[in-house]
Amino acid sequence: MLTKFETKSNRVKGLSFHSKRPWILASLHSGVIQLWDYRMGTLIDRFEEHDGPVRGVHFHKSQPLFVSGGLESASLLLFDHSINYQLFSPFISYSALECVC
Q: Residues with Cβ < 8 Å from 75, sequence gap 6 or more?
């Protein structure tokens, strides 16, 4: 199955497939995260909390959560996609990320 999704951002930086639902998260260079239903080809929701490019996204395996990482301020954000709500936004510096990796 090949499906094309249109967006106004010039670059998609990351993708994540949901483990049970026909959903895909797309993190965009414009700072937006889009939640798509890939079977229906429809945009379910948008998350616009990042100030700059969103480098990656990842669904939680069993909870209605996903995490995203942005370039500006090295931000990590945690979202509950069932209520379209940002839960947590810790500040992490690049040096701290280097220590973890």
A: 50, 51, 69, 89, 91, 92
The CATH code for residues 12-100 is 2.40.10
Q: How far apart are CA 4 and CA 101, in angstroms?
A: 34
Give per-residue pLDDT as tens, 38-90.
999 899 998 888 888 888 899 999 888 888 888 766 678 888 877 765 555 55
63 touches 50 (CB < 8 A):
no
pTM, rounded to two decimals: 0.75
Domain boundaries, the chain: 12-100
**Alpha helix positions (H), the chain:** 94-100
